[in-house]
Specification:
By secondary structure, this protein is mainly beta. It is built from 1 helix and 19 strands. Strands 1, 2, 6, 7, 10, 15, 16, 17 and 19 form a 9-stranded antiparallel beta sheet that branches. It has a 7-stranded antiparallel beta sheet with strand order 3-9-18-11-12-13-14, with no helix packed on it. Strand 4 (about 40) and strand 5 (about 50) form a beta hairpin. The longest helix has 5 residues, at about 10-15. It is globular, with a radius of gyration of 16 Å. It starts with 8 loop residues before the first helix and ends with a strand.
Length: about 220
């Protein structure tokens, strides 16, 4: 059943108060006490990740990708083993080779063994579709689902990691679940926000991704 735009999984499922996150209610770069901004080679060595791609305007954080493949990624400095995460995000029409992604990444930096949870990834240039990918195991196996959705509008994307399952939600409605024991991440993970390049050094169409807030729950 489709969710109602603006609903949060946290409110509907009674997750309580967040224990970490960012409301982006300040101006400047992302808070360095919370976030580590990537500098260096881009996703799979496509383009570059630069701290200057990020800006906070007192309401939302925006990451921009330019024609040369310069874009951004940032990782929250503290993670946890199991729990819940939710973020409010939108992505205007952009380049199919720029993928806005909300994900969990292993604290141990031991990918692929440590797993990867892409709880919202967009590759459609019209931003009318979203994917969920759960990566697991040394061979980087995956389970995946897709949903038609106007991602140019604000939606709330959440992931719940229990002792049995990884579950995805959009606007409070479940759209993904994987309860295979061998697919679950083995260790703690942290939230990251990325605009990933998939076409070398381009040229790309300038693209961007906005996040209103991101929250972590026990």
């Amino acid at each position: 059943m489709p969710g109602v735009e603006g609903q949060t999984a946290a409110a509907l499922l009674g997750w309580g108060a967040p224990v970490a996150g960012d409301e982006f209610d300040y101006v400047g770069p992302p808070d360095p006490a919370r976030w580590g901004l990537y500098e260096g080679a881009g996703h799979d060595n496509n383009g570059r990740r630069v701290a200057s791609a990020w800006s906070v305007d007192g309401d939302v954080v925006t990451v921009r990708g330019n024609t040369a493949g310069d874009s951004g990624g940032m990782a929250y400095r503290t993670g946890q083993y199991r729990g819940k995460w939710e973020a409010r995000m939108r992505a205007p029409v952009g380049d199919p080779d720029y993928h806005p992604v909300l994900l969990l990444w292993p604290d141990a930096e031991d990918w692929p063994v440590g797993g990867e949870v892409d709880y919202a990834e967009i590759s459609d240039p019209d931003r009318q579709n979203v994917d969920f990918f759960l990566h697991y195991g040394a061979s980087n196996s995956q389970t995946q689902t897709s949903r038609a959705l106007d991602v140019t509008q604000w939606h709330n994307y959440a992931v719940e990691w229990t002792d049995r399952c990884i579950i995805g939600y959009i606007d409070g409605a479940q759209w993904f679940a994987d309860c295979e024991p061998g697919h679950q991440p083995p260790r703690a993970m942290h939230m990251t926000i990325q605009l990933d390049a998939f076409n070398g050094d381009g040229p790309y169409r300038p693209s961007e991704m906005m996040v209103d807030w991101i929250r972590q729950y026990r």
